[in-house]
Write a structure and sequence with these properties.
Elements (H helix, E strand, L loop, with lengths): L1 E8 L4 H12 L4 E7 L4 E6 L5 H11 L2 E2 L2
Antiparallel strand pairs: 1-3, 1-4, 2-3
Helix pairs in contact: 1-2
Length: 68
Amino acid sequence: MSTSTYTVTGMTCGHCVQAVQTEIGKIDGVTNVDVDLASGRVVVEAGGDIAASDIAAAVDEAGYELAD
C-alpha cells in the first residue's frame, strides 16, 4: 500500500473535485482518492507505486494540472 500527496491547481468547485477524483480513480491500482478543494491537496492511496506522470496525465485529462 502506498500513499502520495499532490497539489492540483485550478479547482474552484465541487465539480472540479469530482472530475479529479474520477480521472485519478481510473488508474489501475488506485484504491482511494481524497481531494481537498480549499488547499488543492490530493491524497492518492494505491495498492502499489503509481507514477507521478500517471497522476499528472489523469489530472490533465480532468482539465487541471499538478503544481510544480
